[in-house]
Specification:
The complex is a heterodimer of chains A (328) and B (280). In chain A, helix 1 packs antiparallel against helix 5 and helix 4 runs antiparallel to helix 5. Chain A has a 5-stranded antiparallel sheet with strand order 5-1-7-8-9. Chain A has a 5-stranded antiparallel sheet with strand order 4-3-2-6-10. Chain A has a 4-stranded antiparallel sheet with strand order 15-11-17-18. Chain A contains 5 helices and 18 strands. Chain A is an alpha+beta fold and 328 residues long. In chain B, the strands form 3 sheets. Chain B has a 9-stranded antiparallel sheet. In chain B, strands 5-1-7-8-9 form a 5-stranded antiparallel sheet. Chain B has a 4-stranded antiparallel sheet with strand order 14-13-12-15. In chain B, a hairpin with a 3-residue loop joins strand 16 and strand 17. Classes of the chains: A alpha+beta (328), B alpha+beta (280). At the A-B interface, strand 14 of A face strand 6, helix 2 and strand 9 of B.
Chain lengths: 328, 280
């Protein structure tokens, strides 16, 4: 059972997060817990996973209690609410309008009826009520590993956004190549080269531009540009530094990259978004790419000083994997 | 074949970017000819472009602080390459905060024009290097003859153009009514744009435009008030006008009755000639 309220500004951030997650998939999992409200989505090929945690301090009011459902062992079952983005997105369509006009937003579940109510109390005593149906479903939890990533970068999202603008909008994949002295983002275009094929672009950034730059392993990671763009749109709204954790542990498991959003100075939100990025095979002799939902999840970042020496690497809780996909 | 050039001056960078944007609007695919003293963007009048052709010339020393080239051979010290013009203009979009721009001919997996921009966003930040590899086709020598400077026919009337933006707005509206347009002018500084359909005729008159000094004898024999007209496709005229983002230093329209309209423009030191054939 969930009940929370927020103001117009918080609603805008919440809506931006939903929009960013909508780029991955048409389904959104909403998972209230004691730690806060979690929004998750995963794309159809299970190569990108978005996760956002809004801690209770983000909201004006946050109440949560376990649902009445018990499993056969009399242990309360934590269930997710699964929504279809198609019906959720129109509510958060004009975020600037919402920010200006909504005085208070109340969201709560109707117990026993699989209904999620969003009430917007707007100016001039206008009240809009959205009544959404959700499915209770098992959460898409992911297997986490506690090992530390060898490569950690912390940068301002503006830097990534500037780089992304360079690439043509129809480009599907970009490759991130790092060495101990530089960082390079380039278009990966494997098509046969002729005059009509796309321009290959690359941007190299000096390590001095990063807030934190630790590269233990020279590596290259390829990922989908569209996923990154969605994430960057959210970063602009929250305005915090972005931490990128990635490594290349070996052939047996895919490289993981986690983009973590830092503390926003303006709001009290503690949010993190993680994305799993599949490594594209560069060498044909290696085994085919894994595409499971393997993920690192960072715990919520509490209020911190904006310039931090060390990115957050607190121990993450290990969730049991529910998905039956083999990750190898 | 070798080509390397560098621009360090901000004004030159911006000017080069504007030229490249203009070319991108005028021709989807064009030829770039590189000579020791100049660069040309060429669109030849093949069927694909509907008979429209373009010749744009710029003196390399007005732009580049460094310029080295080696053509196909000592006798033919030129390079002709074909590229998608939008690729170049998009690559130059990042030039806003650039300190230097380098262009060179490379062969990374396939022949390309590598545009490399060194950006510096603020005094304290270090440099960022952005590289774009634009795929190109090298044009073989046997095709060079089709890409030479066009012979400019003697015009019946030459007239200075009005503000191009105004002209573009008018032609844009006319496009909704008809596909063809008549452009006519005389030696009294009058230019008319006419469209005619079954239901309606619309004419826009420009007066007091001025004519450049009479070039040929045939011009001198004409009575000043006599109008020369050429029928052309509106789309082609509109494409030309849309390419002119900035008002040129000089703009002349030349009409050869029932044959061709050609525009002679000068954007600071870059010359552009654009030919639109008459409808038969």
């Amino acid at each position: 059972m969930l009940k929370c309220t927020m103001n117009g500004g918080q609603l805008k951030v919440f809506g931006k997060t939903i929009q960013a997650l909508a780029r991955l998939s048409n389904e959104l999992w909403l998972d209230p817990s004691k730690q806060g409200l979690v929004l998750r989505s995963i794309n159809s090929s299970c190569s990108a996973y978005g996760y956002a945690l809004f801690s209770p301090v983000f909201f004006e009011q946050y109440q949560w209690s376990t649902s009445g459902t018990m499993n056969h062992d009399d242990i309360p079952l934590t269930l997710n609410f699964k929504f279809t983005m198609q019906f959720l997105l129109p509510i958060f369509k004009c975020l600037n309008f919402l920010e200006r006009n909504v005085e208070k937003c109340k969201m709560f579940t109707k117990s026993g009826k699989c209904r999620f109510i969003i009430q917007l109390f707007c100016k001039h005593s206008i009240k809009k009520t959205h009544n959404l149906r959700f499915e209770e479903s098992r959460p898409i939890q992911v297997l986490l590993e506690k090992n530390m990533c060898t490569n950690i970068l912390v940068i301002q999202p503006r830097l990534l956004a500037e780089t992304v603008v360079l690439f043509p909008s129809n480009l599907e994949e970009v490759t991130l190549a790092v060495t101990s002295v530089d960082f390079c983002l380039r278009s990966s275009n494997e098509q046969a080269a002729d005059m009509n094929s796309s321009v290959r672009s690359s941007m190299c950034v000096d390590r001095d531009e990063f807030d934190f730059f630790q590269i233990g392993l020279d590596t290259e990671v390829t990922f989908c540009l569209k996923d990154l763009k969605g994430f960057l749109t959210l970063c602009e709204a929250v305005r915090g530094p972005v931490a990128i954790h990635f490594d290349f542990p070996g052939r047996s498991s895919p490289a993981r990259a986690r983009l973590t959003l830092g503390q926003s100075r303006s709001s009290q939100a503690a949010e993190s978004i993680s994305r799993k990025i599949s490594r594209k095979r560069l060498c044909p002799t290696e085994s085919p790419p894994e595409s499971g939902a393997q993920e690192n999840h960072s715990s919520p970042l509490k209020k911190r000083a904006p310039s931090r020496e060390q990115p957050d690497r607190e121990c993450s809780p290990v969730f049991r994997r529910v998905s039956t996909e083999r990750l190898g | 074949m070798k080509f390397r050039a560098k621009i360090v001056d901000a004004a030159c960078l911006n000017h080069f970017t504007r030229v490249s944007n203009m070319i991108a609007k005028l021709a989807k695919i064009c030829t770039l000819r590189i000579r020791p003293d100049k660069l040309n963007f060429i669109l030849s009048d093949k069927l694909a472009s509907g008979g429209v052709s373009m010749w744009c010339e710029l003196e390399q020393e007005n732009f580049f602080s460094e310029f080295q080239m080696e053509g196909v051979s000592a006798d033919n010290n030129e390079i002709y390459l074909e590229l998608t013009s939008e690729n170049l203009s998009r690559a130059l979009k990042t030039v806003q905060n650039a300190r230097t721009l380098k262009i060179k001919l490379t062969n990374k997996y396939f022949p390309c024009l590598t545009v490399s921009v060194e950006l510096q966003l603020s005094v304290s930040s270090s440099n960022r290097i952005v590289t774009h590899d634009i795929p190109i086709n090298i044009i073989p020598r046997k095709l060079w003859k089709d890409l030479q400077e066009p012979l400019v026919p003697d015009s019946d009337v030459s007239i200075y153009l009005p503000v191009l933006k105004t002209m573009k707005n008018i032609v844009e509206k006319m496009k909704n009514i008809s596909n063809h347009l008549v452009i006519e002018a005389n030696l009294n500084g009058e230019l008319n744009l006419k469209i005619e359909t079954e239901l309606v005729c619309v004419t826009t008159h420009f007066k007091g435009l001025g004519n450049p000094p009479l070039a040929s004898q045939s011009c001198r024999d004409r009575s000043p008030g006599e109008l020369t007209e050429v029928h052309i496709e509106i789309k082609k005229l509109l494409q030309f006008l849309a390419g002119q983002q900035v008002n040129p230093t000089k703009a002349v329209c030349n009409l050869v009755k029932n044959r061709i309209v050609y525009f002679d423009l000068l954007h600071e030191d870059v010359s552009l000639q654009y030919f639109i054939p008459a409808l038969s």
